[in-house]
Amino acid sequence: MCTGGCARCLGGTLIPLVVCGFVANVLLFFPGGKVIDNNDHLSEEVWYFGGILGSAVLMIFPALVFLGLRNNDCCGCCGNESCGKRCAMFTSTIFAAIGFLGAGYSFIISAVAINKGPKCLLGESTWGYPFQNGNYLSDKDLWRLCQAPANVVPWNLTLFSILLIIGGIQMILCAIQVINGLLGTLCGDCQCCGCCGGGDGPV
């Protein structure tokens, strides 16, 4: 399989993950599916924009770069070292590294948010973080400590878990493209031309 074809496949996989990451982060601004009256009552990690900045903005550029390789004629480059495919594949590794950092950022923010738990109403007018070191994950009875917003614990847990999974998958895909891009840089875009064979023709 051509390294360019692999990159295009990865780019196509990243696009829906970008959309899901963006939507999940936006939904976090509406805890329990409700509009909150004071933004200070939102969990701190929501404002770090892990899904919007990390899994979406910093990921959309690598995804588009990977998809842009579809214009390359994989086997049409045989015998023509000036076609620029190696340069294109090298560029894709740079964008893959950027995407990896973005996905890693989203992954870390989500992990911290899950461990910390949501910010919620603890008493008549006291807002804070009632959970410690993820203890609520194994003891659902602790969820009642959050009096408001309604269903904020499962809401935040679900959405941050989605972002955690998305970030993990994106990191894996970008890591694959780093390796794939380096192979494309060293050996050319198409294995049918013979890896590192100097473009002497199909094997």
UniProtKB/TrEMBL annotation:
<protein>
    <submittedName>
        <fullName>Transmembrane 4 L6 family member 4</fullName>
    </submittedName>
</protein>
<dbReference type="Pfam" id="PF05805">
    <property type="entry name" value="L6_membrane"/>
</dbReference>
<comment type="similarity">
    <text>Belongs to the L6 tetraspanin family.</text>
</comment>
<keyword id="KW-0472">Membrane</keyword>
<feature type="transmembrane region" description="Helical">
    <location>
        <begin position="90"/>
        <end position="114"/>
    </location>
</feature>
<keyword id="KW-1133">Transmembrane helix</keyword>
<feature type="transmembrane region" description="Helical">
    <location>
        <begin position="12"/>
        <end position="31"/>
    </location>
</feature>
<feature type="transmembrane region" description="Helical">
    <location>
        <begin position="46"/>
        <end position="69"/>
    </location>
</feature>
<dbReference type="InterPro" id="IPR008661">
    <property type="entry name" value="L6_membrane"/>
</dbReference>
<keyword id="KW-0812">Transmembrane</keyword>
<feature type="transmembrane region" description="Helical">
    <location>
        <begin position="157"/>
        <end position="176"/>
    </location>
</feature>
